[in-house]
Amino acid sequence: MIDGVDKTGTFYEQMPRNELESFQSKALIRTVARAAQSQYYSNKFKENGLDVNDIKSRDDIVKLPFTTKEDLRLSYPTGMLAVSPMEVVRMHTSSGTTGKPTAIFHSQEDIDNWSELMARCLAMAGATANDVFQNMTGYGLFTGGLGLHYGAERLGMWVIPAGAGNTTRQIMLIRDFGVNVIHATPSYAMHVAERMVQDGDDPRSLGIKIAVLGAEPYSEEMRLKLQDLYGFTAFNSYGLSEMNGPGVGFECPYQNGMHVWEDSYLVEVINPETLQPVAEGEVGELVLTTLRRKAMPIIRYRTRDLTRVLPDECPCSRKHIRLARMLGRSDDMLIVRGVNVFPSQIEEVIMQHSWIGGNYVIYLTRKESLDQMVVKVEIAPGAFDGSIDTLRYRRTELQHQLKDQVGFNVGVEVMEPGSLPVSEGKAKRVIDERGV
Ligand code: AMP
Ligand code: ZN
User: Fold this and answer.
1) CATH top-level class for 334-432?
2) pTM here?
């Protein structure tokens, strides 16, 4: 509640469990009716012989079909739009940079609700209108920028939309404007700290009080290290563009798992093989349904993120369930510098070149806290014509194509035929030495 106005949705935040669940039932019925307005779901419901009137409560969620990233891609650009284009005020996409992205549409009401959720997260972390907030993630189609931005403004914070990168300027802005709340990827926060330490500076001297860290997986150890370096309290923030972006799961001051705002998202955890719900508290794939979105409701979205619902109520007294830190993914998607990358995208580029052999490895490391990707390829047997210049040219060309494909610099190492290890079973294409 700010100045008597419920800008953070305190009403929902404080709902007792039974009220929350009956709200979810009503919201699900409304969501399904709205979804049926889209070409995609109207066809899908027909295919499944589903009558929207069969959905009477939250328990009926199991009657509904799952939605996957592939479904979103196939319905690109507007197959899942459930309102007139006139009502759309903004779109975002997932952070993957190639092929057809998954495009998500928002009405004004959707943006307002999302901002409310973000403001709620920031307030839960202890941020107030008196604080100065620096948003150190990318803006544009990526949801981390505008998502946090609107939430912080709604809370009445002083917002500095610094965007990603330019470390020297980030540090200057933090100092000059007394920034005490930041949003960054954990790897970038670590990069900034390491740079400062290298320059003989102390990250604690920045005076940051609260850090919102998310968009990529990281460990509890990484959180503790960052808290120690900066002296701030770090809050894990989880989201995905299909579910708006940030604001889906967020930690309270107990830092014991992320509360999911269940007035906006219906949570299921399934076994990715059988697609059946896992037993209470067991690890599985997180499946989410939007409950308040209007322009583009998404039903039973398979996030591919692996986690579990934590048992017991949180001492903070909020009744919204908590999820454990994400444990990995049920597909092969990599998150490199906050960008979603599928190994198949790399393969697609490599395989266009007849001078490259069939074996390749994607090698991931972390240097000064920044993810590095090196692709090792072999020259196809007989393809080397003895010219080092040709080889150099080919390597540079491949480097450019990979950069175009994923959006960041990728190293390329060209090896002799037969020098990469050949695995006996499934090919091991990705060697990830970043740890988390
Ligand atoms: P995007 O839709 O591009 O924003 O990417 C969303 C994906 O980023 C999620 O499905 C997760 O795999 C990952 N992600 C976002 N936040 C976190 C977090 N706090 N911890 C672990 N993974 C995260
Ligand atoms: Zn809590």
Assistant:
1) alpha beta
2) 0.87
